């Protein structure tokens, strides 16, 4: 487009603008040999500039895509790391719950799951700890009732012995 405009301006300047006598004489003899290199240089410069700009635009697009790909790869790596940490936390938490269940199964009713509120399985461990506390209280109450029952039996036996 610029080459066309420059070429038309050159033709206009050579043909329609006022000239001195010497330039008119030269243009009459060799107009085509003077104008042709000017127009050809305009065309060549325009083609080279077009190719250069097109190449630069493609390079910028490739760089943008490469940057987007790098950002996506980084995001995927971060997500993979977060997922791995969550998986490790879950495995550790599950292991603590299993250890607590094993301790309780072996008779240690003081065992509790040591998980905090920021843990994914905190609600499960909290519920289990609450259950274990209630179970421990029930066992203590049952033990107290047995002691009292045994005392009542002894008292009953003693009273029967007195009545005979």
TrEMBL record:
Protein name: HAMP domain-containing protein
Domain of life the protein comes from: Bacteria
Species: Reticulibacter mediterranei
Coiled coil regions, renumbered to chain: 128-162
Keywords (A to Z) from UniProt: Coiled coil, Membrane, Transmembrane, Transmembrane helix
Stretches assigned to the HAMP domain: 88-140
PROSITE patterns noted in UniProt: HAMP
Gene Ontology annotations of biological process type: signal transduction
Alphabetized InterPro entries for the sequence: HAMP_dom
GO terms under cellular component: membrane
Transmembrane segments: 25-53
């Amino acid at each position: 487009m610029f080459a066309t405009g420059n070429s038309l301006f050159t033709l206009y300047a050579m043909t329609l603008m006022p000239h001195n006598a010497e330039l008119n004489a030269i243009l009459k003899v060799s107009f085509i040999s003077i104008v042709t290199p000017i127009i050809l240089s305009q065309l060549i410069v325009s083609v080279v500039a077009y190719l250069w700009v097109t190449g630069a635009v493609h390079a910028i697009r490739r760089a943008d895509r490469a940057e987007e790909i790098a950002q996506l790869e980084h995001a995927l790596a971060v997500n993979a790391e977060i997922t791995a940490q969550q998986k490790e936390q879950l495995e550790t938490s599950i292991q603590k719950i299993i250890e607590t269940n094993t301790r309780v199964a072996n008779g240690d009713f003081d065992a509790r799951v040591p998980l905090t509120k920021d843990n994914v399985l905190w609600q499960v461990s909290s519920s289990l700890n609450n259950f274990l506390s209630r179970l421990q209280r029930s066992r203590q109450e049952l033990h107290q009732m047995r002691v009292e029952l045994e005392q009542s039996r002894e008292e009953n036996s003693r009273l029967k012995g007195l009545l005979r």
